[in-house]
Amino acid sequence: MSDPSNFDLEAIISNPPKIHEARGELIADWKIDNRTCFELSARLKQSLRTLETGAGLSTIIFAAHRCHHTCITPDQGQVDRIKSYCASAHIDTSSTNFMVAKSSDVIHQLARSEFDLVLIDGCHGFPSIFVDFYYAAKLLKTGGTLIIDDMHIYTCQLVARFIQSDPGWKVTIKTRRMALGVKLSDTIDEEWSNQSFVVQRSSRQLFTKALRFCLNASRPLRSKLGLTGTQLFGKR
Ligand SMILES: C[S@@+](CC[C@H](N)C(=O)[O-])C[C@H]1O[C@@H](n2cnc3c(N)ncnc32)[C@H](O)[C@@H]1O
What we know:
It is a single chain. The chain is an alpha/beta fold and 236 residues long. It is built from eleven helices and nine strands. The chain has helices spanning 9-14, 34-43, 57-64, 76-88, 103-106, 128-139, 154-165, 196-199, 203-217, 219-224, 229-232; strands spanning 20-22, 25-27, 49-53, 68-73, 96-100, 115-120, 140-149, 169-174, 178-183. It is elongated. 33% of the residues are buried. It binds S-adenosylmethionine (SAM). The site of S-adenosylmethionine has 21 residues, from helix 3 and strand 4.
């Protein structure tokens, strides 16, 4: 089987395999975009422990680098197409472990703090992606990399915004398509009151913001009427 250093990503990208099936047809369009392919590939090396939810071109990139890779997808057909493409391209899949299942059903079975890199690109629905994210955060080693694909989808964007705000992560790349962050520490089980992302969006905070906005907006009228801030609420 081929040496990872001979792997020609540009050649694969210019003629990507049709791994996914939509409306009875095999397509290549659901793959990670070219920038994500290169960012991913640049971070992979032989024997790294890696995990992805979903499967496709990304799985081929992990295999080509001979990572100890775990790929979770419910679609056996995809797994067969990936294996057959890799065989034809002399890419060794013997260190890729396919788990044919929905990620939310099995991801909790994996060993904690084991993985160097996790790509989340499986089910993007609510709340599946949050289940993936929760376990990915626990499965990653400190210093490990998390990639979330499909920033145009609200649920994916929400996870990316959360990690941007959280001290347990450092987001180093955020494009219109993907976010890439490094895990700095274990913060995933923090209570909401220690998460600025949640506090800022919670009702007490929103009420204060709304009140401040109304007071500011009505300031010209109140000053015309001779009402200062304290007069508005009545003298005590
Ligand atoms: C956008 S595609 C992934 C594209 C892939 N990363 C690539 O580069 O080609 C979404 C993938 O998620 C898989 N999927 C759908 N539901 C899933 C679930 N509940 N758990 C894990 N994977 C799921 C689909 O079978 C598909 O492989």
